[in-house]
Amino acid sequence: MDGNGRWAEKRGLPRAVGHTRGAEVFRKIATACKDLGVEYLTVYAFSTENNRRPEDEVSAILGLLRKYLLESIEKMERDGIRLKFLGNLDILPPDYRKLVRETDEISKRVCGMQANVCFNYGGRDELVRAVKRLGGAEPTEQALSDCLDTAGIPDPDLIIRPGGEKRLSNFLLWQAAYAELIFTDTLWPDFTKEELVAAFEVFSARKRRYGGVDR
Ligand code: IPE
Ligand code: MG
User: Which ligand 1 atom sits nearest the alpha carbon of residue 6?
Assistant: First the structure.
C-alpha cells in the first residue's frame, strides 16, 4: 500500500493523514475483494525497514493499527472478513499483542475472505525466523513453507504495487516466486475498485507457465 506519504505531501498535509486515508482505502478494497470472490488478500502495511522512519510517523501508524484491531474485533463477524497479522509482532507493546490474539481467536469462528496484514514484516526476516523454527528438520520446500508466517496460505497469484516504484521491497520474497506483478503509478490512497478490476483483467490475460511450456 505505497504512496500514502506522497499523497499527503502533495496536499500540504502531514504524512500521517495519508496513512489514515490509506487505512480507509484498505477497508474499501478489502470489501471489494470479498465482493469479487477473492479468497485471500495480503497487504503490506509496515515493513521491518519502516522502523527507520521518524518516531512520530511510526507512532501514527501504530495508532492506526490499534484502531483497526479494535474495529476488526468488533466488526469481523458481521463483515465476513477474517483478519490475520503476518510479521514479527513480538516488538509490539503487550496490549497490542493481546488485541492480535483476540483477533486471531475471532478469525477462527468467521468464514469469509481472509485479509492478511503484514506488519513489521520483511521477507528476509520471515525466512530467518522460519529457518530457526525449522530447527534440525529436513529442509524441504514444504517444510520451510510450513514454518513461514504464511503457513497454510496459498502463494499469491497476483501482486499489485501502487505508488510508482517497481520493486518488491522485501514483500513475500519466497511466496512471490510465480506471482504475476502489476505496477501502477496510482498512489495507494487514490486506488479504486475500478483499478482493481482492471488489474484482474490484465492478470486474466497473462499466460502462466510456471517454468513449463504451453501445450
Ligand atoms: C506506504 O506509504 C505506507 C507505509 C510504508 C507505512 P509511504 O509512507 O511509503 O508513502 P510514500 O512512499 O512516502 O509516498
Ligand atoms: Mg513508500
Answer: 14
| Residues in contact with ligand 1 (CB, 6 Å cut-off) | 1-6, 46, 50, 61, 163
Decide: helix, strand or coil at residue 110.
coil
Q: Is 116 a catalytic residue?
A: no
Which residue among the candidates 35, 50, 56, 116 is catalytic per the annotation?
50
Give the span between the Cα atoms of 94 and 27, in whole angstroms.
25
Residue with cell 499489485: 160
The predicted structure's pLDDT at residue 116 = 96
Contact 125, 156 (CB under 8 A): no
- What are the grid coordinates assigned to 110, written together? 468467521
pLDDT per residue as tens digits for the range 49-74: 999 999 999 999 999 999 989 988 88
Write out pLDDT tens, residues 170-213: 999 999 999 999 999 999 999 999 999 999 999 999 999 999 99
Cα separation of 101 and 95, whole Å? 10
Q: What is the dihedral of CA 71, 61, 159, 142, to 10 degrees?
A: -80
Which residue among 2, 15, 48 is best mutated to probe the pocket of ligand 1, counting the most ligand atoms within 8 A of its Cβ? 2
**Average of per-residue pLDDT values in the chain:** 95
Distance from residue 2's CA to the centre of ligand 1 (Å) = 5
Half-sphere exposure of 17 (CA within 13 A, CB side): 9
Q: Which atom of ligand 1 is nearest to the CA of 3?
A: 14
